Amino acid sequence: MPARILILTTAGIWGGTENQIAHQARHLLEQGFQVTVGTLADGDGSLPQELSATPEITTFSLHTTRRTPWRVMDLAVRLGEERPSLIIAYLFHSYLVARILGKLFRRIPVISSFRSGGQERWRSFLDRLTMPLTDFFVVVSEDSARFAREELRVPEKKLRFIPNGVDVEWLRSPQVPREETRELLGLTEQDFVIGCVARFHPIKDHETLLRAFSELREKPEGERAKLLLVGKGEDDLKVRALAEQLGLLEHVVFTGFRRDLPEIYSAMDAFCLTSRREGMPNAVLEAMAAARPIVATEAPGTSAILRHRYNALLAPVGDAEGIAGALAAIIRQPETGKRLAERARREVGERHSLEACMTKYLSLVRQVIGEKGEGR
Fold first, then answer.
1. Same domain, 95 and 61
2. Shared-domain flag, residues 333 and 264
3. Are strands 110-114 and 136-139 parallel, antiparallel or unpaired?
4. Average pLDDT over residues 93-107
5. Residue 374 lies in a domain
């Protein structure tokens, strides 16, 4: 009987991590494994909804909230029912629970996936305390690896570096013409469209992005600029309120959650991400694959894949003026933007293909559960 893999994450929302989980679940299924994807909390239900197109993948939520954290104990029951051969746990709360309820009490191997370049001290303390209960600790960038070694004290024998991967060919193949997508979004061909694909969360720092865009609009280069914000999240209302406060609403397009990413990136003239901290941002890899000129902050994780004036223009974290100046330079010098974008496009194809990422994970899965055959 095929081995069962449980992929566990925090909530059923959609973002870079959840995108990787969906790809991983389908890839493991194709390799002959039984796959279950579980979440500690419901979120907005985007992840299970995405996976519903593949009914062979089982999904569940423990329905935990801040008021009912004890519901996480239902995982112990689930583990008894599912009897997985391995748990791949994404993000802190999930892998902490997997280590304790899975490894400690059920003797189920655990792979912990760390997706950031840092975290709070109390989390690091618990990470170190339970590190003996994880079989492997996967990081997505050199910044994450450095933090894992220095702050979390992860033994080298447990540390694995598996960068995020994106479906390069899909992102380069929009099915709808750029002009039509722009028209549907309320944009024209005369607009210079700056796009950002990111959930509305404090760590993504949309405030700096909006303030930078406001400064750009005051420059001659920004006269035709429009800002395309793709995503949703807990800071949605806060971001919209700031856009209104800055007098930007008529120049900002909020799309909400979108799955037609090839078309969305095709509609952009440049991509901008102002995160304060990242693991390895999928959206940046996607923009690289789509050959969009990129402006970003020098955030941990982001700076691991982008180099200033080589494949992007970078500014310090929180530096709205620096971001505005970089965007103005991209508009003023289109040839520079094309050169940066072409270097980024080549690099993502060579180092961050989805196939390479999934192959490395599959190898690790087989190593942990002792599988030597093809898919079993």
1. yes
2. yes
3. parallel
4. 95
5. no
**Tens digit of pLDDT for each residue in 258-297?**
989 999 999 999 999 999 999 889 999 999 999 999 999 9
In a domain, 346, yes or no: yes
Both 216 and 264 in one domain: the answer is yes
Q: For residue 73, is pLDDT > 70?
A: yes
- The distance of Cα 291 from the centroid of its chain, to the nearest Å, equals 18
Residues 150 and 191 in one domain: no
Domain that holds residue 92: 4-165+353-369
- pLDDT on residue 371: 52
Instruction: Tell me the whole-structure pTM to 2 decimals.
Output: 0.86
What value does the mean pLDDT take over residues 66-72?
93
Distance CA 47, CA 13 (A): 6
pLDDT confidence tier of residue 374, bands split at 50, 70 and 90: very low
d(CA 179, CA 194): 15
Number of domains in the chain: 2
Please check whether residues 363 and 269 belong to one and the same domain: no
Inside any domain, residue 375: no
* pLDDT score for 373: 41
* 285 phi, psi to nearest 5 deg: -60, -40
Domain annotation covers residue 63: yes
CB of 66 closer than 8 Å to CB of 37: no
